[in-house]
Design brief:
The complex is a heterodimer. Chain A is an all-beta fold. Chain A has no helices and 11 strands. Chain A starts with a strand and ends with a strand. Chain B is mainly beta. Chain B has no helices and 12 strands. The chains are: A mainly beta, B mainly beta.
């Protein structure tokens, strides 16, 4: 199983809503990542978890709140988002945080109204 | 600072033509890793290859080949006999091994490849 799954595939939310994105991998990887990607741009790193601990927060606004309940799961909790937060949110995992290729999920296309 | 340059924004070819994507990188480190990813319209980034800085051997995988030249800091990617399914955005990425970079990927801007029948 070399797959990273993400749910939902599409999400539309208002600025006052609270929603969560979910990511799952069963490859035994110990590093998991959240990226944000705007159209025609490369992915931008948001958060990294290594061995279930937050390793990197790239100065992401607090309206984005990551959570790693266990080594296979990664959540991104969303609250009070802005329209400019509309983007493709990609989850990735790798064996370890360094030296290794990252495997990406299909992403969640988020629209904030 | 690390930097990856993909100077070609878009390349259009007709099916069966070869296409070469350029990637030039900058790093002060002697140990680093280079990657290529494919992003089709569906959105998922698909891992294609990883190369470490100590391995300059070129690699071929089916219709894909990669040319790594440390002397020119380039890691170019060639698709031979292109097919419509090769239409995608291709990203080159660099990751430095030193502790304070924490393995973060620096992506290039991406090159859109359009293959027409």
């Amino acid at each position: 199983d070399t797959e990273v799954t993400q749910t939902p595939k599409h999400l539309v939310m208002g600025m006052t809503n609270k929603k969560s994105l979910k990511c799952e991998q069963h490859m035994g990887h110990r590093a998991m990542y959240w990226y944000k990607q705007k159209a025609k741009k490369p992915p931008e790193l948001m958060f990294v978890y290594s061995y279930e601990k937050l390793s990197i927060n790239e100065s992401v606004p607090s309206r984005f709140s990551p959570e790693c309940p266990n080594s296979s799961l990664l959540n991104l909790h969303l609250h009070a988002l802005q329209p400019e937060d509309s983007a493709l949110y990609l989850c990735a995992s790798s064996q370890r945080q360094v030296y290794n290729e990252q495997f990406f999920g299909p992403g969640t296309r988020l629209t904030v109204l | 600072a690390q930097k990856v340059t993909q100077a070609q924004t878009e390349i259009s070819v007709v099916e069966k033509e070869d296409v070469t994507l350029d990637c030039v990188y900058e790093t002060r480190d002697t140990t680093y890793y280079l990657f290529w990813y494919k992003q089709p319209p569906s959105g998922e980034l698909v891992f294609l290859i990883r190369r470490n800085s100590f391995d300059e051997q070129n690699e071929i995988s089916g219709r894909y080949s990669w040319n790594f030249q440390k002397s020119t800091s380039s890691f170019n990617f060639t698709i031979t006999a292109s097919q419509v399914v090769d239409s995608a955005v291709y990203f080159c990425a660099l990751s430095e091994a030193r502790t304070d970079s924490w393995g973060k990927f620096q992506f290039g801007a991406g090159t859109q490849v359009v293959v027409t029948p």
